[in-house]
Amino acid sequence: MTSEEQKAKKREDRFNREVQKFNANIAIPRPGTGSVSVTDLPVLEKHGIELSDILYLTLADLRDNPLNEYPPLADEELAELTEDIRQKGILIALIVKQDGTVVCGHNRKRAGIAAGLVRGPAQQILSELTPELERDIMKSENDRRRGGQWSKEQKETFVRENFSAVIETTSHGGQRGNQHTGGQASMNLAREIEKKSRGRIAAGTASRIVADLRKKTQKKPDSGSASLSVKERRRAEKLAVQIRTLRETKTVLLRKIQDVDSQEKAALRELKSIGQPHLFGV
Distance between CA atoms of 96 and 129, rounded to whole angstroms? Predict the structure, then answer.
């Protein structure tokens, strides 16, 4: 047997071991480790999507989906998934189109390659797909694998608990800039929320939540005024009116003083042009 034949045999043996490991793992009754079926993803059943049997495809040949809007796993999470796959293999088959484009399983593909796998389990979608249906399948799978779809209240609570300090700072001018930099900062914050929520809150939704929270922050009453009695509040309101009136009066007087100064300087210049001002006591 030549060296090339020996290498080919080793690759084939390794592949067969990976297949055996995958089959052994999915044989164990545990949630989420069986092959995907239409009942696992209701959107597939709803649209009559047909899947192939499990195939073993070369991971490096699979292409990322340009319609995928979900952020990749953070480095530490990807490292954990990579180590898990290195020990157990890929437990849940990827879902791919017949041309090799990944629909579900982008992170499993990345982690599998990082773990040194050459081929991995996948099921091909045999039915025709529209871009809208493709996005629907990706959303359904991500919601299922990432803990389900959050309600509006859950999303707002998540943003408030994790980003309230940033939102409050920008609401009161702490990071204000021109229109371009302000818009860019808001977009960066929305993307950070999407990343931290692991895709549960899309960037567009995050932007709307942040805008609503900023409005609430700006309308929030001063914490000190809330503790004033009715008598103290009325007195404070009268004092505030008095202060505004005095400031307006001061502004008018300052303008008059400026006018008087200008007239004085003009008269002094004219007097100097006639003769010596000290002769006239000025």
Answer: 12
Helix (H) or strand (E) holding 132: helix 131-145
CB 97 within 8 A of CB 103: yes
Residue 204 lies in a domain: yes
* 135 and 69 assigned to the same domain: yes
Give the end of a domain, one of 145, 180, 209: 145
Q: What pLDDT shows up at residue 41? A: 61
Structural domain range at position 235: 225-275
Whether residues 114 and 59 fall in one domain = yes
Distance CA 159, CA 196 (A): 10
Find, among 77, 153, 147, the residue nearest to 108 by Cα: 77
By the 8 A CB rule, do 42 and 149 touch?
A: no
* HEC profile of 175-221: CCCCHHHHHHHHHHHHHHHHHHCCCCCCHHHHHHHHHHHHHHHHHCC
Between strands 119-124 and 94-96, the pairing is parallel
- Answer with the one of 116, 145, 174 that is the final residue of a domain: 145
> Cα angle vertex 88, ends 85, 93, to 5°?
70
Is 281 contained in some domain? no
Q: pLDDT tens across 38-58, in order?
A: 445 666 766 778 888 889 999
One domain, residues 52 and 111? yes
- The pLDDT tens digits for 187-230 are 888 888 877 776 677 777 888 888 888 887 665 455 555 577 77
Bin 57: left if φ > 0, else alpha if -120 < ψ < 50, else beta.
Answer: beta
Give 263's DSSP letter: H
Angle between helices 179-196 and 152-171 (to 10 degrees): 140
Number of domains in the chain: 3
Query: What DSSP designation does 253 have?
Result: H
